[in-house]
Amino acid sequence: MKKILILFTVSFILVSQIFCDDLVIDVDKAIALLHQNNLDLKEKSFELKIAERGKATTWNSLLPEIGIKATSDLMDNPGFTSGNGPDDARFGFELGISASLNVNYALLARRKSYILNYENGVISYEMAVKGLELETKIQFYHLLNMLEQIKIMEKGINLAEKRYIQVKKNFSKGLVAELDVLKSKVSYESLKPSYSNMKNEYEKILMGFKIMLGIDRRQNIVLSGSFDKDIYTFNTEELISAYMGKSLNLRLLNKNLELLNKQKKEAALFAYSPMLSFDYSISPMKYNPWADDYEPLAGDSWNFDEDRGIGMGVFSIALSMSMDNFIPGSAENVKNKNIKDQINKIEYNLKNTVKKSEVEIINIIKKLENSIQQLETNNINVELAGKVYEMTNEAFNNGTKELLDVEAAQNDLLSADAAVLGEQFNYLTGLLNLEYILNTPLNKILDNSSGS
After folding, report:
1. Which whole-number Å values give the CA distances from 52 to 58, 62, 106, 116, in the listed order?
2. What pTM did the predictor assign?
3. pLDDT, tens digit, for every residue of 30-43?
4. DSSP characters over 53-111
5. Strand, helix or coil at 333?
């Protein structure tokens, strides 16, 4: 028992040490962990494997169907007529082997559909990867933003605490009323619940972030990064013209359209072209192989009894064509019409998606431009709010300003700091969304952009 306790204690210390070490994560590390551990991506990879296996084994549609059949029966013994007993009957055993192959030109043309289906799967998988990468980056910077917001709240609490201490000193000197002490105390304490809620929300989002990256929930992580990004300008029409074709949504729709057109041709070939069938079967038989107490008959061993059609290999070739496919409302006829409607649906969806994508690009560029303007304003506000707070706080210490004036100036300063962080986050997410919709890294967009 003592050894078990020691072993448990040592194991606990080792595990605790592992999770006490901080794991430093920047945005690139986060993406690497996503690819390595994310369960959604692993699940999607199996769909891709299925499509890839279908493409690699299209030849199996030309394999014959092979079957083996074994039957047994009890037959009267025609060669043994005296007496009664179990040997008055014979046990029969029949073994049959058959093979059939149906050949249609549509089966030969089906390989192209499997290839298109695999290419469709590749694009779908790429969309899943890029979508999760975008989500990971945005969540990473959102957590960074929350950490900075928490720091701002800590700054506000520290300033409120210092002011409370100063007011108490001024009260002891008879410079302020007791009411000012109570007000400063309330102001200080009222900041703590919001601070606690922000920290709890951060931990909640951080837990989801860990799950996404496959990090143990007990692992301490430190986020490394900043919101500092250069200011860029873009030519909207150039972006639409140069990168619209790379959009994953449009690529997937185009691939679906190509696949449906191929399936339409295959369905027509299958429905309106003849089927060539090859069949072969053989059935050897043996009667009562275990009986040895009567005179054996010719049928007591494996035989090829032509009269019974047993044991003879039979080979046949047939050419057939289903005529009900020409009847309006038949299964194949309806299937072909459904495929045509699906093609029309995707064509309209494609046109609609192009228009929506253009509008989305335009809106992203406008938001980026607005963020740039707002950042300039917010930075000026931070500078002005800082000066106002310093002057107001100094005036309060000199007795020429009220406590409420100081609190208002502090709130303005903290709000200005928070506004800068918020707009930096908006600008950064705008750039990330632009990369995603254009399916092109930002550095390549900038290299090819005349407006940068």
Report:
1. 10, 19, 21, 10
2. 0.77
3. 999 999 999 999 98
4. HHHHTGGGGGSPEEEEEEEEEEEE-TT--SS-SGGGEEEEEEEEEEEEEEE-HHHHHTH
5. helix
